[in-house]
Amino acid sequence: MSVARQTRYKSVSDLEQAGLLPGACSHDYADLGARYAIGVNSQVVGTIADPVCPLQDPVGRQYLPSPEELQRAPEELRDPTGDEAHSPVTGIVHRYPDRVLLKISNICAVYCRYCFRREMVGPGQETLTDADLEKALAYIEATPAIWEVILTGGDPLVLSARRLESILDRLNRIAHVQVVRIHSRVPVADPQRITKTLCSVLKTSAKPLYVVIHINHPQEITESVVEALRELRASGCSLLSQSVLLKGVNDDARVLDSLFRALIGLHVKPYYLHHPDLAPGTGHFRVDIETGRAIMRALQGRLSGICLPRYVLDIPGGFGKVPIEHCYAAVQEDGDYLVEDIDGRVHAYPPRVRAGDG
Ligand SMILES: *Cc1c(COP(=O)(O)O)cnc(C)c1O
Ligand code: SF4
């Protein structure tokens, strides 16, 4: 694989100089760079199909800052998923009994404008110290209910291979941890980081290793992404994907249809379609739940079942994720069900027996 160096853009002025904010006025962005991390690289720039209006492009929109981010709505929350309420020690979020998040990095390869952790990620944010990591691993060791450890961040795959290896090594030695999962944007947004060295480290996991890639649009799939996914699979990882439903990016059944089919074609099982979280300054990305449901209904039954992710909402306040898809079955007063088919026709369950039948 080519290890071409990425050009990185880390500020409004870097982006302006590269012509990625055409028509922008620096003062529109005055406080933005200081408020939220900016991170774009040549990999993602190469997938922007509309150079004239990159902010309207489904990839450009995900990464290029917009003055709309300075608009705040009252319902927006600093910690929209309520992780802090479930953090017994620094770096751990333990909200569900059998699994924890282990946030091993506060930095990312790129910065997504709609990020639900945008207040916590980026250069200058507090990082997990060696002492914190030690305490977090000790918590996992001391908690037998933890069946699965989910490495997240920031992005866990920006850590050095050596650091990742030492974490996997510790997890290998905890008998009650049966599964390790990694949530990462790197295979899609910075695939050159999926090096032979990194893959040789992933191979050292004694537990099944699931890598959940974050991808929102078929345009993000390049030859280097395909190659990175192939390498991950060759290292024994099982691949899943998560996407965020975003206005102007993928709020269209045709776009998601082609994304999910393409992913299955690359041996990646679509896992979650997230309803966007109430992160500050992300109102321009937000769609309503009815729109999300209508999109999922359009896909249900027309798209192979293996292509379909679950459409989930992380309930604000730390109450966890639940599926919010349309419910096809309604209970009747008599305790029977009325069940809708994919064309909207309603059927009784159990089927009503007419007089004379049988
Ligand atoms: C999303 C999430 C998980 C993982 O949930 P799954 O439904 O198993 O994918 C675990 N812990 C927290 C705090 C989460 O937000
Ligand atoms: S890679 Fe993940 S954590 Fe990092 S900015 Fe994007 S959504 Fe946020």
Bound molecules: pyridoxal-5'-phosphate, iron/sulfur cluster
Report on the biggest sheet.
9 strands, mixed
Please trace the helix and strand order, writing H or E for each element: EHHEHHEEHEHEHHEHEHEHEEEEE
Helix content: 10-25%
Seen as an oligomer or otherwise, the chain set is: single chain
CATH superfamily of the largest domain: Aldolase class I
Distance between the termini: 67 Å
Topology:
Blueprint: E1 8-9, H1 12-17, H2 32-35, E2 40-41, H3 42-45, H4 60-63, E3 92-96, E4 99-103, H5 130-141, E5 148-152, H6 161-172, E6 179-184, H7 186-189, H8 196-202, E7 209-214, H9 223-234, E8 238-244, H10 253-265, E9 269-274, H11 289-299, E10 310-315, E11 320-323, E12 329-331, E13 337-340, E14 346-349
Parallel strand pairs: 4-5, 5-6, 6-7, 7-8, 8-9, 9-10
Antiparallel strand pairs: 1-2, 3-4, 10-11, 12-13, 13-14
Residues 108, 111-112, 115, 117, 121, 153-155, 185, 214 line the site of iron/sulfur cluster.
Describe the protein's architecture and organization.
This protein is α/β, with parallel strands linked by helices and 358 residues long. It has two domains: 73-323, Alpha-Beta Barrel (TIM Barrel), CATH 3.20.20; 328-358, no CATH class. The chain is built from eleven helices and 14 strands. It has helices at residues 12-17, 32-35, 42-45, 60-63, 130-141, 161-172, 186-189, 196-202, 223-234, 253-265, 289-299, and strands at residues 8-9, 40-41, 92-96, 99-103, 148-152, 179-184, 209-214, 238-244, 269-274, 310-315, 320-323, 329-331, 337-340, 346-349. The chain has a nine-stranded mixed β-sheet. A hairpin with a 2-residue loop joins strand 3 (92-96) and strand 4. Helix 6 (161-172) runs parallel beside helix 8 (196-202). The mean pLDDT is 94. The protein binds pyridoxal-5'-phosphate (PLP) and iron/sulfur cluster. Residues 108, 111-112, 115, 117, 121, 153-155, 185, 214 line the site of iron/sulfur cluster (SF4). Pyridoxal-5'-phosphate is lined by residues 81, 83, 93, 95-96, 99, 101, 150, 321.
